[in-house]
Amino acid sequence: MQLSHKPINISAVLATATCALLGVTAAQAEENTELWKFDTALMYYGETDRVTAVEGVIAATKDFGDEHIFSGKLTIDGLTGASATGAVAQPTAQTFTRPSGNGNYEIAAGETPLDDTFHDTRLQLNAQWTQPIAQDLRASGGLQFSNEYDYLSFALNGSLAYDLNQKNTTLSLGLSYALDTIKPEGGIPLALATVAFNPNPEQEDSTEFEDNYNSTRATDSDSKNTLDVMLGLTQVINRRLLMQFNYGLSTVDGYTNDPFKYLSVVDEQGLTQSLVYENRPDTRTRHSFYWQTKYAMDFGVADISYRFATDDWKIDSHTIDSRLRINLSDTTYIQPHFRYYQQAAAEFFQPFMQEGETLPEFASADYRLGEMTAYTLGLKYGMELDNGDELSFRLEYYQQSPKNAGFDEPGVLQDMELYPTVKAVIAQVSYRF
């Protein structure tokens, strides 16, 4: 048998497969192969001594004519590593029972408590359809499905975009609704309940521990729903300058806690006496204001944006994001990237609780809800290949610096690092064809 050395048309193969899923014939797919566009990417994200993630993405876009456009995306994430529990470091070693109740783990003296059993795989599917419905008016609708080991999410969205002023101005309105279900290993803990400790994890039948553990469980699973509204204005200023303004409103209702986060209860010397599960409000309303400007120059494109967000948890944040594409030649470019982020702490954030004090209604030691600054610094290099495809590489450094939001630290906690810096490296390879 003679083997053919004819190169395989990957775009055609993927286009045919995608059309089969949509109910389009292979002949139709082959006829419009050149209109299929694919974007693929493989990204690595690694925090120092913490979480590591590897993400693969493939996105497809198809114009069926007359601006009837389908787009779809498949994302697969693999996450491993250690995640901060919210408990404070201590001058002596600490032993914790795992969230499932099965087994213990030890944290060395002076170290931030991290649960090293963090492991998950996420699969996400997106599909979107866009088409004109009247002169200068376009509609778009889509679905999203995401599944993890203990998290399931369904979402749908719809939007309208209206062009006016000879298509130099576009007004847009978007809506989306998501329903999420969380079913953590071990179940949903009771808010602010004392975390059960298993002194004999090797003992298979420990009725006393099982009773204590079960008494801290509220239910096996819980859910939340999220409604987002977005109003947008895009304006062409001149042949080089484009601006965009958005206002977003987001409301969340339901289970917002992280079932794996604790707070340490410490005495006057700062020594941990017990742990309690966190509790956050079951509603959240967030407003965001976004401005973006793109300016085309002879040698490239400058892109800068600013976002201000505020919510009824009292988290105010500011984000500045800037990119500068510099064309090195007709087929190659580099793109420096800088992003700065600053946020205030949630009104119920506290790094620990004091023994003997009345339990608050809401409390969380999750550093992601605390006061912080963060920045990203990176560089992207892209090239257009002889066949018109594009290959690019991105390397970035990320640093997050939590801060003390005005809490006094009793006793030994003054010598502990309660707000450790999080550092990460991001690397990505992308291929467009």
Automatic annotation (TrEMBL):
Coiled coil: none annotated. Residues 201-220 are annotated as: Disordered. The keyword Signal applies. Pfam families: DUF3570. Residues 1-29 form the signal peptide. SUPFAM superfamilies: Porins. Residues 202-211 have a biased composition (Acidic residues). InterPro entries: DUF3570. Keywords: Signal. This is DUF3570 domain-containing protein. It comes from Paraglaciecola hydrolytica.
